[in-house]
Amino acid sequence: MSALPDPSARVRWIATPEGISVPFQVASAGDRIAAFGIDFLLLVVFSVIVLVVALVAFPFGAGEFALSMALLFGFVVRNFYFTALELKWGGATIGKKIARTRVIARDGGPLPAGAVFARNLTRDIELFLPLTALFYPRLLVGNGPGWGALLAVVWLFVFALVPLLNRDRLRIGDLIAGTMVVRNPVALLLPDLADESTRAALPEYGFTREQLDLYGIKELQVLEDLLRRFDQGTVRLDTLELVCDKIKRKILWPAPRWNVDTMSFLRAFYGAQRGRLEQKLLFGTRQEEKKR
Amino acid sequence: MSVPAPTGESPLARTGPAPAAAGGEPRSAAFRRERERTWRELEALVDRVERQGLKSLSGPELHRLPSLYRATVSALAVARGTSLDKNLLDYLTALVGRSYIAIYASRRPLIHSLAEFVSWRFPSAVRRNALLVLLSFALLFTGVLSGWCVTMSDPERYTALVPAEMAEGRDPSASTEELRKVLYDDGGGWVTELNLFATFLFTHNSKIAIISFALGFAAALPTVCLIFYNGLSLGAMAALYQQHGLGLEFWAWVLPHGVTELGAIVLCGAGGLALGLALVFPGRHTRLENLAARGRDVSTIAIGAVGMLFIAALFEGFFRQIVHSVPIRLSVAAAMLTLWTAYFTLAGRRWDVRAP
After folding, report:
1. How many Å lie between the alpha carbon of A224 and the closest alpha carbon of chain B?
2. Chain A nearest CA to B336, separation (Å)
3. ipTM of the predicted structure?
């Protein structure tokens, strides 16, 4: 049972200051777009509200003043929303909290304020300018030649698409700041399949050492996965019966004792197998796969 | 460990693989049983921190958090070497990841960040890049000089150097009276001034400043061109006014806010150059590492420059409309220059560090 939110996402190992490396799942392009979309929407809604408030003040004669204040306020918020929230919440904005992602430093240390500044300063050229170029190219290039406008648009789009061109989904801002956006890890501890209390309830099957030496770590973890999924109800008993038969055949389980209760056999086998493999691990032998 | 933990047991008391338990159960099961309580405690604390921030923890809990974290990290290290329970490994990995984020993600009150920024971070970053700032200033100055010389020798070149939107009717065909009017425009009351202020924030100078920083990413060539181009248009306009006998008045009109605004543009230009150089000459690091190391420093400069542009816009919107006397305008300009120079050379000196 994997505790990772999405087993197929790219993983990057970050070295924490304690000297241990921890894997983080890189936030996918979809996550990033969703988070930014939410933040962008909030900004738009906020700008609209501010403008409406300003317009409402018009009949009262303070219209122009309110409008200027609105423009000013809008300017400040638009430019500093991301920076302020990422500083205050340690790498998260409202959109990122909803998408369950976070900004961290690629080198594994604390997230410095300078990094937050850096990654947000380039949003202009990565997003707002390309968007303007898409809809009003003349605004940017003035009255230059047509091919000039096209060149400018293409160049701006390269900046905007940089995250799609590298596997860690780094924006230009991330490249300059040494940061990365990752998914929040999800930790779920399920009961141990091999501890004393479980084993006490099982009959003694008496697996020999030779029998336990046949399988490796990979098979053990597949068995663990199956047993947990059975406990959750996503795997049926007949699948486990097939597995049980396969194991019995491989370890040359004696015919007189062939008929066993599937679940207790598998749990007992898991416990014994894990104990044997961990013992070998302590002596430095790591058997990844089955023999033969 | 000077303070006993609330439960009277230190999470660091036992390290290493657990002793073999009875009944032939795997050692890792006993290992887990011993430590599970610690991990659950850490998980509860991290849950609270994620939802409500570090402030939601009480004093003793805050004290306990780092030792729980370190104990879990060492448990993960041991488990990786001795346990084959995949769920346990995934759980500990994720728990360490979440705790790492909870502990190391920087959270500080915005006011502190702001005060720290203004009092030492910004001037310190400028001092570290002093050479590039001078280079950027030299570029601007060369631009101004070139624009001036070219326009003085041939007034018609003005239209090539200054785009129509920026000139706003101030071109060789304008009369002396029209040009003078611009310098002493009354403004029409403080509400209009506020409007002007708000609009000046969106004028092309702000964009130029930020873009020349951001374009440093493209190896600084666009930055060089932009700074020079800015200088050109300024020099050309100055020459135009000079030819109508309004040279001194022109500088008195530009410099009060211009000192700050041009300073900001110079700083952004320096930032762009630093980024470009970081890409082209990475030194001992890889290009990306170097970019990241320099980028944080340089973006501090860019943010500070945006602040300076804000101040310049205040001057542009209000001061210019209120004060019309040339000597006062010029002395204010001189005062601003002195202030900025003093700020950048003296503020926060004792916190200076050498560049990485």
Report:
1. 8
2. 24
3. 0.80
